[in-house]
Fold this protein.
Amino acid sequence: MPFTRPVPPENQRLLQRIYRQSRHHAVRQRSHCILLYLDESGFCLIPYVPYGWQPMGETLELPSRRSQRLNVLGLMSRYNRLASDVSTQSITSEVVIACIDTFFTQVDKRTVIVMDQSSIHTSDAILDQLEA
């Protein structure tokens, strides 16, 4: 499945650097795999926190304005190397799969990707990929 848009060259270089660094460290430590962590998040200028600390009887307000939401998907090595992609598109299971597929075109050794239990990560599309 292709990316919905091309991977920027700087992110492609970062993915390659994570792979090279992980491979080098794995050889040095006699490890058998590369360990990566994957997660995503979204940001916008409208605060979503409906509460906060404030003096009793006083209401604090935060100025905000409408903005387009920015979504970030990242792969981080255990050595704090991060490859990320920022987009205005929604991050779905298909986008996560495309990111992983793009990364694995460069990998020639066993790699473990740790993800949390969010619905994107436990969808049927992701589980089908695990079985493939």
Helices lie at 9-28, 93-104, 124-131.
